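Okay, any thoughts on this one?
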Amino acid sequence: MRLIFILLLHFSLTCYAQLNESFNDNDFKNNPVWSGTDDYFTVNPNNELQLYDNEARTAYLTTPSQTVEEAGWQIKVKMDFNPSSSNYARIYLASDTEHLPDVHNALFIELGSSKDNICLYKIENGNKELLIEGLTDRLDHPAVDVIVKVKRTENKWTLESNTGAGWYTEGQADAEYNYPSAFFGIYCQYTKTRADKFFFDDISVTGLPYRDRTPPEITDFELINGSQVFLRFNKALDESSISTDAFTLQNSERRPSRV
């Protein structure tokens, strides 16, 4: 008698994700679409995304991006002031939400704050952790003009910056980050006197979306007749994992003839 397993299948594709934004079209609301506190941003005559406000607050923009693995991120940031704990920028490389003040899982670069440096952080389940702490006083200047980039290869991270004299490695780290991304984002914390002095340009994001590596588990089964068993799993299955060799009846050690 032949044994047949009937499974719920999920056909998945691995795709290469990409984002390139130079704001040369004088627009940040289309191709790609940026959203958030968009009333506080503009594209200036130099084709840069500029914070354009007159009050103290936080402002942010996000655009869809699933990139998080085997990835590279790069952006140019200018701040026409010496950054501080009241005036600094964050670049969210990966975020689970478009509302950046409420991220639950995310990766971000922080430029400025109390040590005038460039740092890489991750947030997991709402808990912030420092991955790479850059050189203290790296941004301790009357004005900041820097290109920053992050590279991820498996669980190895590299943070680099260029203030005009060539690339400098701020640091490296080994760290896991096993969450999908939905958005790339820009975040500004500022006082009233700095409300129009943040600039962003030349954004490049390349890499792969999140790949779930946790094996599925059988949660339920149903004997349909003497030769067919219906299996239910706690997550969808990758087509490439489905084969008759992947299943065995525990007591008899029989394998199905097909799945």
Q: What stands out?
A: The first strand starts at residue 4 and ends at 6. Confidence is low (pLDDT under 50) at residues 8-14. The CA atoms of residues 91 and 186 lie 5 Å apart.
